[in-house]
Amino acid sequence: WARVLFVLPAFEVRAGLRRPGTKAELLRLWGAGGARPFYGALCPRCQAPTDFGRWRALPPAPRLRVAYEAPWRDPWEPFFVAPARGVPPFDERFLQYGFNRISQACELHVAGFRFAVLDGAFVTHGGFKEPGGFHEGREAELGLNRRLFRRFREELRQRYPGSPRRC
């Protein structure tokens, strides 16, 4: 378990609605259009490895459990719980918008970590993220971080020379 990260499926909840406290409540909201997978309208690929369809179809469980392992795929941005020690620190060069969680997940993958999706736990964001709903400097920040990410991937090859994993 020291090399396993526990992924919390992430959702957006329509503004003005109460955030769900249980998976059953979340599933009802999702079915009624009041919730959806995080970044569902902006970057579905960024959360796709979580496999929301699979998570949604799981039979009810009496307690928190690991449901399945999800293989890392670029450009995944999982929300996760990690061990207190042994996890590479977040690269603080990724400021503002873009590639912050992608770079961290990429490094964790290259470092040999596995991603286990939890059932019975999830995180929510208040409001739907929509195109055009970002601050003015977002595109410039995204461009800077995109260039930094290219260098970052090369640095990972040097940092983990024995790893067969790439991103």
Automatic annotation (TrEMBL):
Its cofactor is Mn(2+). Keywords: Glycoprotein, Glycosyltransferase, Golgi apparatus, Manganese, Membrane, Metal-binding, Signal-anchor, Transferase, Transmembrane, Transmembrane helix. GO terms for molecular function: glucuronosyltransferase activity; metal ion binding. GO terms for cellular component: Golgi membrane. The keyword Manganese applies. Its main location: Golgi. One of its GO terms (biological process) is protein O-linked glycosylation via mannose. Pathway: Protein modification; protein glycosylation. It is found in: Golgi apparatus membrane. It catalyses: 3-O-[beta-D-Xyl-(1->4)-Rib-ol-P-Rib-ol-P-3-beta-D-GalNAc-(1->3)-beta-D-GlcNAc-(1->4)-(O-6-P-alpha-D-Man)]-Thr-[protein] + UDP-alpha-D-glucuronate = 3-O-[beta-D-GlcA-(1->3)-beta-D-Xyl-(1->4)-Rib-ol-P-Rib-ol-P-3-beta-D-GalNAc-(1->3)-beta-D-GlcNAc-(1->4)-(O-6-P-alpha-D-Man)]-Thr-[protein] + UDP + H(+). It is a single-pass type II membrane protein. Belongs to the glycosyltransferase 49 family. This is Beta-1,4-glucuronyltransferase 1.
